[in-house]
Write a structure and sequence with these properties.
alpha/beta, five-stranded mixed beta sheet, 182 residues, EC 3.2.2.28, G/U mismatch-specific DNA glycosylase, MUG/TDG, single chain, Uracil-DNA_glycosylase-like, hydrolase activity, acting on glycosyl bonds, Uracil-DNA Glycosylase, subunit E
Length: 182
């Protein structure tokens, strides 16, 4: 992709991959320019979402971003706190995060997923005013869904490896499975 194509994707909105009654609705911070240009969530080559999703047991094989619609068959979906594509998450204002949190709560109430998994604890803190939130299950629910804050799979998040992220995502998967079987 050329730099011009990427810049042309700035502020594009990428449609959600979502439907009613999902097991987990994964919520990214906002689309990257690569995602804005391709229309596929977590499309930047350095993003580790797709391998982590597979290694954690959510999908039977590693999906490519272009196969994102297959998630619905597994009871999974994708949305974002802020809908517009940017080069970096720090281009978003705190008010955009808060407004995105309000819109997300309404979307979750409408779709009714069992769990909302926010992929990026800092985005979760800002969008929902939960300054002390940590990675893992949260005390609150949003729109009727239980909430889990997950590590951001961006390649810029060097504190988490693919293996440690997959372990945390697998903790969520185990909680979902337990809730569905119990």
């Amino acid at each position: 992709m050329t730099p011009e194509e990427l810049q042309a994707a700035r502020d594009h909105v990428v449609p959600d991959v979502a439907t009613g009654g999902l097991r987990v609705l994964f919520c990214g911070i906002n689309p990257s320019l690569t995602t804005g240009a391709t229309g596929h969530h977590f499309a930047h080559p350095g993003n580790r979402f797709w391998p982590v999703l597979h290694l954690s047991g959510f999908t039977p094989r590693r999906l490519r971003p272009a196969e994102q619609d297959e998630l619905l068959g597994y009871g999974l979906g994708i949305t974002n706190v802020v809908a517009r594509a940017t080069a970096r998450a720090d281009e978003l204002s705190a008010e955009e995060y808060r407004e995105g949190g309000r819109k997300l709560a309404a979307k979750v109430a409408e779709l009714g997923p069992l769990w909302l998994a926010v992929v990026g604890v800092t985005a979760y803190r800002t969008a929902f005013g939960e300054r002390r939130a940590r990675i893992g299950p949260q005390e609150r629910s949003i729109g009727g869904a239980r909430v889990w804050a997950l590590p951001n799979p961006s390649g810029l998040n060097a504190h988490w490896t693919v293996a440690t992220m997959a372990d945390e995502y697998a903790r969520l998967r185990a909680a979902v499975d337990q809730e569905l079987s119990g």
